[in-house]
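User: Sequence in, structure out. Go.
Assistant: Echoing your sequence, followed by the structure tokens.
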Amino acid sequence: MRTAIDAWGQLDIVVNNAGYTLDGMAHKLEDDAFQRMLDIHLVVPFRVCRAAAPHLREPAKRERNEGREVFRKIVNVSSVSGLMGNVGQANYSAGKAGVVGLTKTLAKEWGLLRVNVNAVAFGFMDTRLTAARGTAGALRIDGEEVEIGIPAEQRDALTTDNPLGRRGTAQETAGGIFFLCSPWSNYVHGQVLNVTGGYLGGMTS
């Protein structure tokens, strides 16, 4: 937060987008893999929002006393896995489902201060994390190499099951977030925007 304030003088938008996956069937999933997914996908967004709170809420209180309405934005990144579950992702799905609850709670707590809090739930977007396993490389997490990507056959199945017949692009990923950060979304509050191409019926929450 201090880095942002030092660079820009104020804080207007927070996007919680950090994450990775550690997939495994629930009956074989180790405690560490479960906890790490909760930490990065739920605990970190909570701590970021809490740290951002003074920089979002205090200016809003002054503006409210002055009779001015200025909107600030928080966008938390969830997933279709958090809304409907996904085989092999009990840990990831739990974290992303928690993000939805966090989003809706903050929306109720901070709405009067004109801090829009929303989430975006992505389907199969074509990013480094969803590239074919073996081609995406690895991330270094806590000193450990974590292979990223998904099996090629799973990628094909996810594409086939999508009503639009393709994966989402990086630009389309950014588009949902951009909308929720823009003035066009000032009256969109406490919502989960599905950016899934209709995958698994993900047209509504």
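User: And one key feature?
Assistant: The mean pLDDT is 88.
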